[in-house]
Amino acid sequence: MSKKNRAIEISFVVIAIVAVWNLQLNNLALDIAAGLGFKEDSFGQEVVVGIFVPMVVGAIAVVAQYFYRHVGWRLTAKSNNCQGSWVYVLIAQAGTEEFPIAGWFKLTQDAVEMKIDDARAYYIEPDDLLFRGDWTSDTIWLRGKELGIVFAMRAEGIGKEPIPSQYSGFIQLRPRIADRRATPIWTGHFHDLGDRTGVHGPIAAKRLRKAPRGDLEGVLDEHVDELRTVALRIMGRAGTRQAPAAVPPGPRPPEVAES
Question: Residue 110: inside a domain, yes or no?
Fold first, then answer.
């Protein structure tokens, strides 16, 4: 969490405590003690007041902090909320070969952290999406309008994925400045890491306005051509899924595309 968001969170908690304190907690505690049969200025009354007031203040602080981290932070002017379901297309370049990959991911976010526990990648075939593998990310950051994702890919869908089939990579995205759509497209680049260093390419992604029910593969198919065209334009080209298919990766040292 940034220092600015931390200051806002602390202020939010303090305001909540002050607001509750104005409800005259001491008087309420005295009423509770009297209801329990303790006389005024008795030891029992002091115990009830001494326990009740701190307990309520602590509970309010916890609830206020939870509310801010999970709900309230989105109301701030610069909350940069990226939470939700995303779809993407990237053009993987591995040496002289290249081929398109499509996928989706579900990004969860609060005031403290961002992560992706559910994501999937597909090879884009001329008339279909062919399952490639799953990936996750626990390292995500948002600086200004730049979204960075370090992912862990587990390719397991088809036999043309050479060893190693588990590896890491990096995605960098920014919203297109000139994009005035209701759901703007984010563009950037990805880079594989480790043994796949050198595999890279452009990526285009879109955060869906509404979280769809069930599997995202059907929803992804509706956006593949649009996102692939944008990714190709980054390379100075244009085309859709119906364009001539890219050369698929054959057996070779572990330099394959990313998700």
Answer: yes
- Strand ranges (DSSP E) for the chain? 84-94, 97-109, 114-125, 128-143, 146-155, 166-175, 185-192, 200-207
Determine the Cα–Cα distance for residues 39 and 179; give it in Å rounded to an integer. Answer: 70
pLDDT digits (tens, 9 = 90+) for 140-179: 998 878 999 999 998 876 666 666 678 899 999 999 866 5
- Asked if 54 contacts 71 with a C-beta cutoff of 8 angstroms, the reply is no
For 85-95, what is each residue's pLDDT tens digit? 999 999 998 88
Q: Per the domain annotation, does 145 fall within a domain?
A: yes
Residue showing tokens 């370049």 = 93
Task: Report pLDDT for 247.
Answer: 44
pTM, 2 dp? 0.67
| Same structural domain, 206 and 230 | yes
Kindly tell me the burial class for residue 253, based on how many C-beta atoms sit within 10 Å of its own C-beta (0-12, 13-18, 19 or more): exposed
Which tokens go with 179?
Answer: 């994009």
Q: Terminus-to-terminus CA distance in the chain, angstroms?
A: 28
